[in-house]
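Troubleshooting: if your tokenizer reports a length mismatch, compare your output against this known-good record of 137 residues.
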Amino acid sequence: MPSRTTLDVRYVETDAMGIVHHSNFLHWMEVARTDFMKDGGKSYRDFESKGLRLVVIGVEVVYRGSARYGDRIQIETDLIKIHSRGGTFRYRIFAEERLIATGHTEHLTTDTSGRTISIPPEWLDYLKHLHTLYSGA
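Known-good structure output:
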């Protein structure tokens, strides 16, 4: 079962047509990704405190519907691939229980200077644990 994040659409997230602007889906995915990491007991802040970064190297969003101000948004997140230098998160975004988007983000791990590095064993084990926890594997 995937991690779940719930948000309410804010007025500032809507465009002149009263519909959530497409760029906000990326913000929601980031919130859901950090919640996913925190759900297992360690936060992304903890990850960064070790001099590590999960850099986004790819994004795909398929829009299937829309949301409006006041809608309740639910984002399901899971880690579908993990390897020594990064991984891929998958998202399903619902508005009032209607699927409105699917997507994924691909990440590489870097140090604070931006150099690609391997994920330290402690964190790789943690991410593998989250993968197992939320994928049911």
